[in-house]
UniProtKB/TrEMBL annotation:
One BP annotation, GO: protein transport by the Sec complex
An example Gene Ontology molecular-function term: ATP binding
Organism expressing this protein natively: Candidatus Epulonipiscium viviparus
Domain SecA Wing/Scaffold per the UniProt entry, residue ranges: 27-103
Gene Ontology CC entries for this record: cell envelope Sec protein transport complex; cytosol; plasma membrane
Protein name: Preprotein translocase subunit SecA
Length: 110
């Protein structure tokens, strides 16, 4: 019993396969079992495709963040006066904190 069969074949198919008593080193020639193995392999390939797809999406997001951070780092390293840049960052952080703290709150009109 290999991992492909154990993980991706229905239990009933595994029981039927085991009842056939085919040695591990003998090729499987039974039509039902061949189709079951092909379906299991298709599931594995689909699962691996999904993993690669999510990994590429994760890598894309990490790359965007990396470019943003290194862009800001470059500005800090190359500017003569970074005061304006720091003030803008501080203002953005304060604005976001106020927005988060007051989200959903309603104030009566003056």
């Amino acid at each position: 019993e290999d991992n492909l069969m154990r993980l991706f074949m229905p239990e009933s198919t595994l029981k039927m396969f085991n009842s056939l008593g085919i040695p591990d080193d003998e090729p499987i020639t039974h039509g039902i079992m061949t189709k079951a193995i092909e379906r299991a392999q298709t599931k594995v390939e689909s699962n691996n495709y999904g993993i690669r797809k999510h990994l590429l999406e994760y890598d894309r997001i990490m790359n965007e963040q990396r470019e943003l951070i290194y862009g800001e780092r470059y500005k800090v390293l190359t500017q003569d006066n970074i005061r304006e840049n720091i003030m803008n960052m501080t203002r953005d952080v304060i604005d976001q904190a106020v927005e988060n703290a007051t989200a959903g709150l309603e104030y009566p009109e003056d």
